[in-house]
Design goal:
single chain; alpha/beta; 7-stranded mixed beta sheet; 17% strand; binds zinc ion
Length: 343
C-alpha cells in the first residue's frame, strides 16, 4: 500500500496500523476486461482444453495443467485452492489413471495438495533443486520427487511428450519451463500474470535478475498458450511483451527515483535524504532507512501507475510492493545506491 509523505509524518510511530486500515477501506481501480478469465461455475473450477490432450485447470486464483496420454495422465501442479477438484477435472475428461505428477517448483501454494492425486505408483518429477528445497521443509502433503533432473528431461508417457527445461534460477531455484510441443503450450509459474500486474514483491521472487531475464527467455519458445499458474486467464505471447514493458518501466522509474534521492530534487531528494521518520526518531537508523525506502518506492510506484493503472488488473494493488522490491533489487544487485555512496 502506498504511504504518502504526509501519512508517514502523521503515522510515523504507527504506520502499520495506518496501512491495515487503509487496505480495508480502499476501493481499487476497475479491472480491465483483459484481466477476466473463464467463468467459474458452482463446481468451483473450470477446465480449458488446449488441444492435443492438453488441459488447463483454474479456480480463478490458481492454475494447473494436465495431459492425457494413451497410457496415463500427466498432472502438473496441484494448488491447494483447487485441491481434490483436480481429480474431478481429470476424471471428467478421461478414465486413464494419473501416472505422473510434475512439480513446477517447490512452493506450497502451487503443489501443496500433491498428496491428494498420487498413489505409491505415481512418478513425481521435478528439478533437483526443488527436491533439495523440499527436504528443508519436510511436508507429507508435498512428497519428495521420485525422479529429478538438472538441465532437461523429456517425459514420454504413451503418445505424449512433455519437455521439462531448467534455464537457471528465476522466481526461485528449481522453477522449470514445462513445454507441450503438440499443443504449443508453455507453463512457467510465477513469472507472467496475463492481464494482471505481477503479484506483490515481483511475485515474491528470490532471484530478481533471473526473474526479469525469464521474460526474454519465454519468448524464445514457440508457444501459443502460456500457463502462468495464477488467476484465471490463459496467456499468449502479447501478455509476455506487455508485462516485460511494465517491468522495464518499473526498473527505469525506480532507478530514476534512487538517482533523484541523491540530488536536491524538491519532490523526492530532500524528503528522502532528510528522512521524515528519521527526523522524528534521531539516531534510529532503521527508521531513517524505512523512510528513505518508502519515499523512493512511492515515487517509482506513482510514476509507473501514471501509465499502467487500469491497464493491468490490480496494478494499483501491488505496484508499490513491486516498486519496493525493485528498489532493493537496484540497490543490491545493480549497485545503484543513490546517497548511500561516498564519492
Ligand atoms: Zn512460487
Amino acid at each position: 500500500m502506498k504511504l504518502s509523505y504526509f501519512s508517514i509524518l502523521l503515522f510515523a510511530s504507527s504506520s502499520q496500523q495506518c496501512s491495515h486500515t487503509e487496505i480495508l477501506t480502499k476501493t481499487f481501480a476497475k479491472l480491465p476486461t483483459t484481466a477476466k478469465g473463464p467463468s467459474i461455475g458452482s463446481a468451483g473450477y473450470a477446465v480449458q482444453p488446449l488441444g492435443a490432450g492438453t488441459y488447463m485447470v483454474t479456480d480463478g486464483l490458481y492454475q494447473a495443467m494436465f495431459l492425457v496420454s494413451s497410457k496415463g495422465v500427466i498432472v502438473v501442479d496441484v494448488p491447494p485452492t483447487i485441491g481434490k477438484n483436480m481429480l474431478y477435472a481429470v476424471g471428467n475428461v478421461t478414465d486413464q489413471p494419473i501416472t505422473h505428477l510434475i512439480y513446477s517448483h517447490a512452493h506450497a501454494d502451487h503443489i501443496g495438495a500433491a498428496s491428494l492425486v498420487i498413489n505409491k505408483h505415481t512418478q513425481i518429477v521435478a528439478h533437483k533443486d526443488t527436491k533439495e528445497l523440499l527436504k528443508q521443509t519436510p511436508d507429507p502433503l508435498r512428497p519428495l520427487p521420485t525422479k529429478t533432473f538438472s538441465q532437461s528431461y523429456d517425459l514420454k508417457v504413451g503418445n505424449q511428450t512433455l519437455n521439462l527445461l531448467y534455464e537457471g534460477e528465476n522466481h526461485v531455484r528449481g522453477n522449470i519451463y514445462i513445454y507441450a510441443k503438440a499443443s504449443k503450450t508453455l507453463m512457467l509459474v510465477d513469472v507472467i500474470f496475463p492481464g494482471w500486474a505481477p503479484f506483490s514483491g515481483l511475485a515474491v521472487s528470490s532471484n530478481i535478475p533471473g526473474w526479469i531475464d525469464a521474460h526474454d527467455r519465454i519468448l524464445e519458445y514457440d508457444f501459443q498458450y502460456y500457463i502462468g499458474g495464477h488467476l484465471g486467464r490463459i496467456g499468449d505471447r502479447s501478455d509476455v511483451v506487455i508485462q516485460r514493458d511494465y517491468v522495464k518501466d518499473l526498473f527505469n522509474n525506480c532507478k530514476n527515483a534512487i538517482d533523484l534521492t541523491a540530488t536536491a530534487d524538491p519532490v523526492i531528494g530532500a524528503n528522502a535524504i532528510l528522512g521524515p521518520i528519521g527526523g522524528l526518531n534521531p539516531g534510529n537508523s532503521w527508521a531513517q532507512f524505512k523512510g528513505y525506502l518508502d519515499i523512493t518506492a512511492e515515487y517509482c510506484s506513482n510514476k509507473t501507475l501514471d501509465k499502467w493503472n487500469g491497464k493491468l488488473g490490480g496494478a494499483d494493488v501491488f505496484t508499490f510492493e513491486n516498486a519496493y522490491k525493485m528498489v532493493e533489487h537496484l540497490r543490491i544487485d545493480w549497485n545503484v545506491l543513490g546517497p548511500f555512496r561516498k564519492v
